[in-house]
Sequence to fold (407 residues):
Amino acid sequence: MALIVQKFGGSSVADASRVMNVARRIIETYLKGNQVVVVLSAQGDTTDDLIEKAREISENPSKREMDMLLSTGEQISIALMAMAIHRLGYPAISLTGPQVGMKTNSCHTNARIEEVDGNRIKAELDAGKIVIVAGFQGIDENGDITTLGRGGSDTTAVALAAALNADLCEIYTDVDGVYTADPRVVPKARKLKDITYDEMLELASLGAKVLHNRSVELAKKYNVNLVVRSSMNGNDGTIVREEALMEKTMIKGVAYDKDIARISIIAVRDIPGVAYKIFKLLADAGINVDIILQSIGRGDTKDISFTIARSQLMETVDLINKNLDYIGAKEVNFTHDVAKVSIVGAGMANHPGVAATMFGALADADINIHMISTSEIKISCLVRWDEAEKAVQAIHERFGLAEEELE
Ligand code: ADP
Ligand code: ASP
Ligand code: MG
Fold:
């Protein structure tokens, strides 16, 4: 008997007929003699709607109360799914994050899982039930409800698969698997048969929201057998694993992220220790910095620019403004008008000219590059916000990633 964790995203459970469809699919797996743990997201746009409700009340709601609010979306889904399975004549029980011992830190709205106590789930499975767990939510040491960040139900599923030592973790979504680019932006994007944890982690971190990046981190750490596939059809999905056995192409995909902003600190003194002061200040405030660019000094000053998550823009600008004297800088400026476009592929480390090809594609599309950052397996360029999709299309085309070009 195998233990299988199946996660269904918001669009897969958006209304009653989809809930019934998914229920049938779950029962199919159960009737093959498997133990089944199901993780669900909130239905359709529920989470966005809840955020909007909060905004109608307050510009800056308490993060603890946001978690209290947002966690309700998943609770609706699990109760409905348990009812659907009951109606079809099979045993099921819904459980919230706190009920399954999904213990997290107290970082409300972006909590990290610290420990999973799988005992309640195991007992229910042993009693022959299908167990339906609310994704995206946990409980901290004070007994308060937390959430794991947008898209966090994937992480719930992988964490449960790891804790229960599941044989397989299937992520069911509204596309057939992981593609060489978001198929909504590049209709000719190709579905990958497999992809390595490292490549998937980069793609997810660089904006391909088909998997939550923490879920990939956990899958790699605990060697979880992970598959992404469609909840609407029976097509083969994409296997995420240590080594890609079937996909040997150099570039695995193109991703983009529009949820970023750029900050520049102008006329910083050109002396040792300045970068340390700036980035220590940001680190202590829990602000994640991404691409960093330092200009060559002119006279005795230089400029330092970096990108951050758009949601942290104003708090970062405030922090720097308050510390201009301490840093030894003249002023700070910022813009929302940026997006990051990236290519990912473990093969690129051994291939010269990959960066040139990417920059050439952008040049020919008349897209200006504002910042560049590279690592062994990715290259990212900062472009204008409204040019992100065009940049993705141009790069995807230049690397010949579309279906027909590989055949
Ligand atoms: P779910 O609600 O099932 O969690 P998400 O909306 O979070 O679904 O993730 C699926 C979406 O991710 C797809 O609809 C697709 O538009 C987007 N996406 C972005 N990049 C990729 C990619 N490289 N491959 C597949 N889907 C991608
Ligand atoms: N419902 C949450 C969100 O919309 C979590 C998830 O879907 O994974 O972000
Ligand atoms: Mg998702």
